[in-house]
Write a structure and sequence with these properties.
Layout: H1 24-46, E1 51-52, E2 55-56, H2 86-90, H3 92-99, H4 102-111, H5 142-162, E3 165-167, E4 174-176, H6 180-196, H7 200-208, H8 217-230, H9 233-256
Helix pairs in contact: 1-4, 1-9, 3-5, 5-6, 6-9, 7-8
Length: 265
């Protein structure tokens, strides 16, 4: 019995026999991530209107050096270039966490690099080297960015707590209260928590590395908890991305006097 060999033909970019709207998702991801990157860079270079009252924009938290009451180490040092805002000193950490995230890798590989743009669709790449050479070998730093992200999550939770204490402009007395901005910051922490605590690396760290998880009930419980968040990792990734930008917009507009923060009590 003779065998017929059918040579494989490489598809050209975006060539496919699929009849569905496969291009909608990568296009939407491209537009969404591009919009966030443009706004985040613009906001980070502003260096102003990033705080109002007890509120501090998450793009600028923690504020290491700055002129706001939230600054941890006082005013900007003289050696720091004028174009370096407080945000540029710290944004590399959360940006690195998202850039190396397992979900975001798949998202921007498809939408920005066309690698491939969708299943059974021709791609731009001619060869495959994996993630074991520069620059993609840097993706292996994700587990270390996770540790920084957990610290940032605690800092942002503290910012939400500080957002409940308002200083009277006349008497200078500080009193407990809740404003719209307080709820914005609390929601930001909750969404970022859902995203960070659903991290694949954290899932491996708390229990996935064990051969017999049943021998460690604590690790098994932690693994189940992280897995619950991990099942919605994509959802939390997008919700937290949108909300952190919205938080900056809200605080910026309050600082500029465009919005008035409504004090609930």
């Amino acid at each position: 019995m003779s065998n017929t060999v059918i040579p494989l033909q490489r598809r050209k970019f975006a060539q496919t026999t699929r009849q569905d709207g496969w291009w909608i998702q990568p296009l939407a991801i491209f537009l969404g991530l591009s919009a966030f990157i443009v706004y985040a860079n613009w906001a980070a270079f502003q260096g102003e209107h990033y705080h109002w009252g007890p509120y501090l924009s998450p793009f600028y938290s923690p504020e290491l050096f700055g002129d706001s009451p939230h600054s941890m180490f006082g005013a900007r040092p003289s050696w720091l270039p004028a174009w370096v805002s407080p945000a540029l000193l710290i944004l590399w950490a959360p940006a690195g966490f998202r850039l190396t995230c397992y979900y975001y890798r798949g998202a921007y590989y498809k939408s920005f690099w066309g690698d491939p743009p969708a299943c059974a669709v021709g791609e731009l790449r001619n060869g495959y080297r994996g993630e074991n050479k520069l620059p993609l070998i840097m993706q292996n730093l994700h587990r270390y960015f996770l540790y920084l992200a957990l610290i940032f999550l605690l800092v942002l939770a503290y910012d939400a707590w500080k957002g409940m204490w308002f200083k009277d402009a006349v008497t200078g007395e500080v009193s407990f209260g809740v404003g719209i901005g307080t709820l914005v910051l609390i929601t930001n922490v909750c969404l970022l928590g859902g995203y960070t605590l659903g991290c694949h690396s954290l899932r491996h760290l708390v229990g996935g590395r064990l051969d017999e998880m049943s021998n460690s009930p604590v690790c098994q419980k932690a693994y189940s908890c992280v897995s619950c968040f991990n099942a919605r990792h994509m959802l939390f990734a997008w919700l937290s991305l949108v909300w952190v930008a919205f938080s900056d917009v809200y605080i910026r507009l309050c600082s500029m006097g465009v919005l008035s923060d409504w004090r609930l009590f």
